[in-house]
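Thread: "does anyone have the structure for this chain?"

Original post by V.I.:
We have the sequence but no experimental structure in hand. Need at least a predicted one for the grant figures.
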Amino acid sequence: ALYPPERTVEAPMYDKLAAWLRLSAERIHEQADALTALDRAIGDGDHGINMDRGFMAIVAMLDATEPPLAANLNDAEASGTLLKSAGRTLISTVGGASGPLYGTAFLRAAAAIAASDGKAADTIVAAGASATRIPAPPRRPFFCARSPTSLRAEAPAPRVRSRIRLHEMGREVTCTAMGSLTRHIVGLQHVSLPIPGNPDSLETARRFYGEILGLDEYPRPTTLPGVGIWYRLGGLELHLYREPSGVAANSQSIRHPCFEVDDVDRLRAHLVSAGVPTRDHDGEIPGRPRFFAVDPFGNTLEFVHLEANHW
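Reply from O.Q.:
Generated one for you, tokens below.
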């Protein structure tokens, strides 16, 4: 339901934000066809569909969220957590450029609330102002791959021309490309990791990724060659495939996927108790407590928790 039963917990800012999100979902649902028609004239013709899907997911998130008192959070903490969850929901459910764009707005608003004095009206105004000062849609996959070359948007991509800044081995190059890349690249879909070709590798992989890490296995298409295992994490997938030479190469490399988690300390203690090798991070990143672990095949994995005001 868009509107749950009334509750009496004193959380004025949280209540206003939750009501605003539900009302937004209702209005977007009512106008989804109109938004799609407008987008069809200038773009892909899917904006209303995508935003409706994203805000219905936010309503589902709200229905499943504990009220501040039950979650042992004060009003500001609950409000920041709410907007952060809403932002992540949009990033993971809305396609095209809209998901990262609106999702970033909510994440910035959450950071503004975390830095506020807790006064509901002033804080909401500050959060709104922060949300609208967005230099670019972020790269926010639940996995993050480490590489000496990274690509990021320098500014919100215009319809015809987009400016992309490429950082390569410390050298910065700015180039201009026709069209908007965000109309083609909408997100990270999966990450693949090699496992050995021996008969026991699948059982070992299922014990580590399925039992120890608790990932949900997803059916792998029978039309694919070779042997492997797929796991699904929200809107992303982890693919394990047999490649003995790949395992040997990866164990000597710093390339790795990164999993976002709720509590890095608790997870690390769990992995250590299961006999999994772990090590500390290789450099502090503000608002991103993290650590590394190694799977049974020598693949490096990173685990990170993203705080409301993270870098």
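V.I.: this helps a lot. Residues 1-9, 134-182 have pLDDT under 50 and may be disordered.
O.Q.: and The chain has nine helices and eleven strands.
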